[in-house]
Design brief:
The complex is a heterodimer of chains A (221) and B (290). Chain A is an all-alpha fold. Chain A contains eight helices and no strands. The termini of chain A are far apart. In chain B, 37% of the residues lie in helices and 22% in strands. In chain B, the strands form two sheets. A six-stranded mixed beta sheet of chain B has the order 6-7-8-3-9-10, with helices on both faces. Chain B is globular, with a radius of gyration of 19 Å. The chains are: A mainly alpha (221), B alpha/beta (290). The complex binds adenosine-5'-triphosphate and magnesium ion.
Chain lengths: 221, 290
């Protein structure tokens, strides 16, 4: 038991470091790129142009209808077969961004639709174009509405990045796998990894709560 | 804001100002409308038609508004009053008819509209909504300067100076940094009015500006509108406040079923309506319990 405790302590910082240098940057980069994709897809879906909105709908349907692990493997192990070889990190970021793009698009679309029609009209009556009204009036309000669900998406993403260990990205889970392979203490190391994911998520959701409390003040009546 | 900003801001305004408003605040007054009330036609609308599906909401509405005139639209719910205002502001596109503002092109809705037609309309008029529709994520001041600054490209310092003066005029100077949710309904609606005024439109459109308010707040909003009317602003007001209409209106239009049933001076319409429908409507408003 003493050696178990010691292994726990000795592997704690390496695993946490795997999280800080792998998991979190991977999740952050994918989330930011994913949000850009999501906004574009949400606007495409809301567009009056049927082709655009069909493309948006198709994208969301494919992303949400296929497993993330399969998406990841298609990019990392599949694309080389057609001559496109991408390194582990960019592959992981690509897969997670595209995935977040599909899920967050629906959140952003719903948030935009939740802004009362009168807000568009108030923008129009002061002379704004559609695009300016969207940017100045609608999106800031939609952003506030979408903070809670997008925070949840981000927390899920942090956990989902453990899949990147399967394409050789050094992140939290891969560090614990490597130590476990060496020491053969699978139970201890995987529970430890679980604990550290949990601590990360606790920190993130308390950040989420603080953010929501601050934004609450401005949400439309 | 520098003093030179200030004077350049007053220059064009002062030139077109109505003859000596009695208000002592008026000389440097951004509330003064762009053009003097000189009885020349400002807005001409002919044969405005609009249907939503099978529902024929407007059947050939004619409307003339002269500069400085206050036109009040009354009529039962669903008669099309809001749709008229929205058509004038380009928020709704009529199926037929024409709208023209003095000095602007005539828009013929039976034909394909030229690009930017809606903007041409919005350039001339501004709407005050029943549910104020203030931007909840912006302070009072930001709400007011958004149009001048972002759309009309007024320099920020000038936009702020003008907005502050307007807010001061409606008694909301101390609220400039408050958010809309921190205001009472009456204050919110006054900000809504100031937001429209800040655009210096030729025509103000009010859609039941007091009907969403608690009764004790109606007065403060109506008195602001009445002041604006007295100062020579041109406006079309949809309201059920007949007392206000009687005092402020130059012309009252009674609408029912998508047509203007009767129009005339408030004294005539309210005391001796010629149409049976008008009489019944007025009876219902004046004696709702009978
Ligand atoms: N966007 C729309 N789609 C379908 N029908 C509409 C729309 N806007 C208005 N209508 C219909 O048009 C008719 C006239 O509406 P409008 O809002 O102009 O009436 P109103 O005179 O302003 O009534 P109220 O006093 O209740 O505000 C109503 O029957 C309404 O249901
Ligand atoms: Mg109405």
């Amino acid at each position: 038991m003493a050696s178990g405790w010691q292994l726990f302590l000795e592997s704690f910082w390496p695993i946490v470091w795997g999280g800080l240098s792998g998991t979190i940057p991977l999740a952050l980069a994918s989330f930011v790129i994913g949000l850009v994709i999501a906004l574009a897809v949400a606007l495409a879906r809301l567009s009056k142009n049927r082709v655009l909105s069909a493309i948006g709908r198709f994208y969301v349907s494919v992303i949400r209808g296929t497993p993330l692990l399969v998406q990841l493997f298609v990019i990392f192990y599949g694309l080389p077969a057609v001559g496109v070889v991408i390194d582990p990190w960019p592959s992981a970021i690509a897969a997670f961004s595209l995935n977040v793009g599909g899920y967050a698009a629906e959140i952003i679309r719903a948030a935009i639709l939740s802004v009362p029609k009168g807000q568009w009209e108030a923008g129009y009556t002061i002379g704004m174009s559609n695009a300016t009204t969207l940017r100045r009036i609608i999106l800031p309000q939609a952003a506030r509405v979408s903070v809670p669900p997008l925070s949840n998406t981000f927390i899920s993403l942090v956990k989902d990045t453990s899949l990147a260990s399967l394409i050789l990205v050094t992140e939290l889970f891969r560090v614990s796998q490597e130590i476990a392979a060496f020491t053969q203490d699978f139970m201890l190391l995987y529970l430890e990894a679980a604990l550290i994911y949990w601590l990360f998520c606790l920190a993130l959701s308390s950040g989420q709560n603080a953010l929501e409390r601050r934004l609450d003040r401005y949400v439309a009546q | 804001m520098s003093p030179s900003d200030d004077s350049s801001q007053q220059g064009p305004d002062a030139a077109g100002e109505p003859p000596a408003p009695s208000d002592p605040l008026a000389p440097s007054d951004p509330l003064a409308p762009k053009a003097a009330p000189d009885d020349s036609p400002l807005l001409t609308a002919r044969g405005i038609r609009k249907s939503f599906g099978d529902n024929e909401v407007l059947r050939s509405i004619d409307l003339d508004v002269r500069r400085g005139e206050v036109v009040v639209l009354i009529g039962p719910s669903g008669s099309g009053k809001t749709t008229v205002l929205r058509s004038l502001n380009g928020l709704e596109t009529p199926d037929g008819g024409t709208i023209s503002f003095a000095g602007g092109p005539e828009l013929d809705f039976a034909k394909p509209l030229p690009k930017g037609a809606r903007f041409a309309l919005r350039d001339r008029s501004a709407m005050v909504f029943q549910q104020h529709n203030l931007f909840p994520h912006m302070t009072v001041l930001q709400n007011v300067i958004e149009g001048p600054q972002r759309v009309q490209r007024v320099p920020k310092a000038q936009a702020i100076a003008e907005a502050s003066a307007l807010l001061d005029r409606v008694g909301l100077a101390e609220k400039r940094d408050a958010y809309p949710f921190e205001l009472s309904g009456g204050q919110q609606q006054r900000v809504g009015i100031v937001r429209a005024l800040a655009l210096k439109p030729d025509l103000l459109l009010f859609d039941e500006p007091t009907s969403a308010l608690d009764p004790e707040l109606v007065g403060e909003v109506l008195s602001v509108i009445k002041e604006l009317a007295d100062e020579g602003w041109t406006m079309v007001v949809v309201t059920h406040e007949l007392g206000f209409a009687r005092q402020a209106a130059d012309e009252v239009l009674f609408m029912d079923g998508g047509v203007v049933v009767e129009r005339g001076a408030p004294g005539d319409i309210f005391t001796k309506p010629t149409e049976e429908r008008t009489r019944r409507f007025l009876d219902r408003i004046l004696r709702p319990m009978d």
